[in-house]
TrEMBL record:
Gene: NOX1
Natural source organism: Ursus americanus (American black bear)
GO terms, molecular function: metal ion binding; superoxide-generating NAD(P)H oxidase activity
Cofactor(s) the protein needs: FAD
Keyword terms of this UniProt record: Cell membrane, Electron transport, FAD, Flavoprotein, Glycoprotein, Heme, Ion channel, Ion transport, Iron, Membrane, Metal-binding, NADP, Oxidoreductase, Transmembrane, Transmembrane helix, Transport, Voltage-gated channel
Catalytic activity from the UniProt record: NADPH + 2 O2 = 2 superoxide + NADP(+) + H(+)
Bilayer topology: Multi-pass membrane protein
UniProt superkingdom: Eukaryota
Name of the protein: NADPH oxidase 2
Example GO BP: superoxide anion generation
Primary role: Catalytic subunit of the phagocyte NADPH oxidase complex that mediates the transfer of electrons from cytosolic NADPH to O2 to produce the superoxide anion (O2(-)). In the activated complex, electrons are first transferred from NADPH to flavin adenine dinucleotide (FAD) and subsequently transferred via two heme molecules to molecular oxygen, producing superoxide through an outer-sphere reaction.
Lineage, opening ranks: Eukaryota, Metazoa, Chordata, Craniata, Vertebrata
Gene Ontology CC annotations of this record: monoatomic ion channel complex; NADPH oxidase complex
Amino acid sequence: MGNWVVNHWFSVLFLATWLGLNVFLFVHAFLSYEKADKYYYTREILGFCRRTLRKQLDHNLTFHKLVAYMICLHTAIHIIAHLFNFEHYSKSRQATDGSLASVLSILSHQEKGEESWLNPISSPNMTVEYVTFTSIAGLTGVIITIALVLMVTSAVEFIRRSYFEVFWYTHHVFIIYFIGLGIHGIGGIVRGQTEESLNASHPHRCAESFKQWDVHDSHCKHPQFEGLPAESWKWILAPVVLYIFERILRFYRSQQKVVITKVVMHPSKVLELQMNKRGFSMEVGQYIFVNCPSISYLEWHPFTLTSAPEEDFFSIHIRAAGDWTENLIRAFEQQQSPIPRIEVDGPFGTVSEDVFQYEVAVLVGAGIGVTPFASVLKSIWYKFRHADHNLKTQTIYFYWICRETGAFAWFNDLLASLEREMEELGKVDFLNYRLFLTGWDSNIAGHATLNFDKATDILTGLKQKTSFGRPMWDNEFSTIANAHPRSVVGVFLCGPQALAKSLSKRCHQYSSLDPRKVQFYFNKENF
């Protein structure tokens, strides 16, 4: 008897516990995905720790995905184990061979006023489908499995990038998932022998003599079973309480009034908003969540701050990249209408906060991915203006890769100001920047070639000439390594995953095996 119970339920119990652990981690991962204040404060608290320890916080999205994959894997195994169990149950209930399994299966579902059954299939005619859709465990299992499938399939990169609203709304099915998970085990479908029955009829001495149960001179009686207490709610209670507290805090902060002080329309359908909010304080490279109630009450989108901490406002640049952003830009373009109300939550920390912790910083922005580095460059301009002697960074290499020439106009004035400031202070070697145009034709290239001898670039008006194509990263890293043979170099990227892999590979390739010599540390913005 004991072996039969163990063989059929061990896999389910073990996998349920393991699944519960993964869900516990998943809720924490979801909180890290939401990136509440705790993420920012944790980075600040760990500011005195080793760089490698602080960097682990910046892999929160990777952690979120890995735990989600583990939940999917163990959910699949858990379901398969249940299917095998119910197949055994069905066969045992229909068996007439007098085996231990068949005897246990016909135990009454209502014996002596207590539910003493072991097999949830109470009659030979009852189907597995009927038990699945009429029991609490079966019905909630189906619901949370469907919820999990919806969340996972809508989170693939193609849907997330192209149909963000689908991803956003579907991902919040997690509320149904956790509610279903919390009550999944209360039906008591996973059962065990009662303590009283275990003392009277222990499996080790009664399993072999099951045909003599309840015989007058037998010491073994029919076993009594009870549903095991639900455990899943214990795994999710603490993180869910933390999540609810965080949402209340974020709701309170988002209701604080935001004043839009300036609206600028840049080329390539990029909207710049300059705003003020009481008590708002930021660091370089941080980002905020933005909501526009006139477009959607529920959608919050992350945008990197392009202003510097030294400025008396905070700003973001929004590129048309979907229905929500297009509707927002259209709303601000309508001059006859009142300015739409904006709600802001944040700011939140990112890897770019650590730029000034490196002696040499390499900043790589692709398209609108330049925004976190605009904040960095602006802050540098203010630090030089106010002669900040605490600045640890000695040299910055800035690479901006764009598909179209109009994109360079977003921060032309900033780069021009930095050029003048560096020349006036005699620090022309402090900022080395390169602009790369990847979307060009023969007319643009020919025009640039004819005007190459001019003092300023024909496309941007800057002294640094625009390069056509993509950077040759081996040459760039080799040059930096030779120029700074004993420096710690921080490489920061806001761009696509393919570029991230390329830069990460070269950081390892060009870092010296001698820790006293040049070391490259790769950092990527994650949203």
